[in-house]
Amino acid sequence: MPKPSNRNDKIVDLLRKELALLIQSEIRDPRVGMVSVTGAKVSRDLSYAEVFVTILGKNSDEDIIESMKALNRASGYLRSLLAKSLNLRTTPKLTFTYDNSLNRGRFLSDLIDEAIASDKKD
Q: Has this prediction a pTM greater than 0.70?
């Protein structure tokens, strides 16, 4: 199994930062809302990138699905903006994936708080 390269990590960090700025400043679709780019995974040949995002302020699953559809529809536009701002030989094709880790962490924190409260009662 090949060892991940340092260059790959640098490109992932650069993509994450640039995409966070571009989504905030360039995407005008109201369905997107407040998006936080939590991570990215780039293929070895740097032609594909899976970008993990969390959508803040939207609680229903339907709103999240609509936001993800809007982001994935804007992926070509974001890719062209990335190509202009980054000096890479190939700009990766972007796919956005919803990152549920924030909700999962909140759920686990609530479970811990409930366990501590029940211990104090006993």
A: yes
